[in-house]
Structures are given as structure tokens and as C-alpha cells.
Amino acid sequence: MQDEFSVPAVIGKGKFEAAVVAARIISLAEIVQIPGFTELTSEQMYRVAHTPVNLQWVSRPVYWMQRGRSAEWLRGVHPDYRADQVQLENQVRTDLYHRVATAAAGDARLLDQLDVGGYSMVSGIPKLLELLDEGGGPLHVPDSPVVDTGPWRAITASPDPNERAQLAVSLWNPDFLALIPGFAKALRTRLRDVRVCDWDQEGAALLYFVEAADGDIVVWVGWEPRLSVEPRPPFWATLPSAARRFLSEVHAGFTMLDGESFGLAQPSYMSTFAAWAGWPADIPDWDRDDVLASTSMLWLTGNGGDTALCTSPNLAVGEVAVLFEGDFSVSELGPELDRLMLSPLS
Q: Which of 32, 111, 122, 227 could form a disulfide with 304 if both were Cys (CB 3.0 to 4.6 A apart)?
């Protein structure tokens, strides 16, 4: 067929993970339209919207081609895959509609049996231990502080966790901290330690250990600024000067342990949104009047799954496109980035 395309045969790699998404089988847009959903309590609504019963791993190219629509719409995939996906959608749809209907009628037992929560590959001590792999992984952290002649000399020489944390935050440029005031406050009040580390084929970085509201430790990684070298990513000038200064002088990327989420990715890893999503030439059937072209947006970061933040020369500097399932909106970069970075701590 003249319009036919095919899903990329080889799934590309994220920074340290396969490029996959923990995607809803039934979109959030459909869930909120389930009859009886608005009659549920807020806790019950959250349970239905965030149950792993409605999640599956899909490849990133398939996710952003599908964008929250039914698998019936998919082209360029094997017919058996499409048929299996449609069958799965129908099974999950029937199950969720039934649970919501019975709860709205006054019997919440089936709904209360739903687990809450999603898949995550990117945060916390378990992921850190996986990357360390008892000394055999790609990440290496010295057992004790070491003296270094690089930009983090004082941090690496200090034996005190609190002092290391304070020294690390003091390096952040004030105008970037002003962009993300909520996360800036978290760094000043919840940052428990900062440790120097080394990544195979990546170079030096700082690990930031931040305490979440529930007491768990969430780990971010800030890359050594000397990694921020030419060539710059496309549409580099669409980032505010404060963000460009941070990426050039403080950390050449500040993300969770997947190297791409809940922060700003390394400039060398940023790309057009289409290329990051697995479609370098353009995402099939993407263009419509109310969205920007997938090749005219610079992908910055996301939530490790179904949400992405992008700038564009078609937007004002300081604005960001927010992409989620089939939704596209334009907002201010600072508040959106701040909200994204704070979300793992709440």
C-alpha cells in the first residue's frame, strides 16, 4: 500500500534500558468515561486509573504511534500482534467496566481487589544495586571519598555526607534553581548525600540521594559538565539560558538512573522527539492541526513512560510541549519540569 509503513524491526536503546513504555491498555481518556466512574470516591478513581491490571510493556515506537488509541488502529505490525492486542483490550475493558459498575451500585469489593501502582525501572536503591551488580555492573562508587582534581574536588574529598550535599547544591546556578523552586527546596531540605561515581563509557557523575515523603531514598545522577560538548542537539536555542547554563557548567544532564527521566537528559542524548520515539523520519500519522510536527520538537525528558516534555522553535523560549497518550498541550517549562522532578518524592 502507498501509505503503509512498518514498525522499526530493532527496538533502540534508552540511555541504560530498552526503549519500552509501561503503557495503559485502555487509555486514561476512556477510563474517565466509563459509566459510573464519576460516582466513585477519589481513592477509587485513583485505583482504577493506576491499576497494573491495565498496564503492559510495549515498545516505544509502537506506543507513540498508537498514542492511547485502540490497537485496531495499528498498521505496520504483524496481524497476530494486532489481533492479540485487540483481544487484550476487550478483556481489560470488560473487567474494568464491570468493577466500576458494581462499585457505583454500592458493592466495591471487586474494585477494592485492584492493586495500585505501576512499573518502574528508573528510581531508588534497587535500581542502583542493579547497576552496581556487586562490582560487575556499569556503575562504580568508591567505598570512601577520594581526592580528585576535577570540578568536584571538594565534594570527593569530604568525609561528611551533609557537607557533600551542600557543596553539590552550591554548584547549581541560581537562575536554574529559580526555574524549579519546589525541587530546589527539596535539594536543600531532603538531600541526604552526594557521592562521586564512574560509569563505564560515560565518565564521572554525582549520585544525589534524596529522601521521599515516605522515607524511601530516590536517586538522581548528575553528569560531569565536561561531557557537555559539541555538537549541540537540534533546537538547542529553544532551551532557556538558565537550563543551557546548567547543562553546560553544572551537570551535562541530571536524571534518574535510566539516564533520561525526571530531569534534563544529557545534551548528547537529546534529539528530535520523532527520533527519540523511534521514528527518525517522522512518527506515522502524527501530524494534525493542533500538534507540532514530531521532527520540529526537541525531546528533553519524561517520566520514564508515557509522558514527554519537548521544546520547539515553533514555541516561545520558556514554553514546553507536554505529550501524554494522545494529548498535546503547551505550558511553561519551569513549572512543568519542577512538577515532573518532584513527582518521585511525593
A: 122
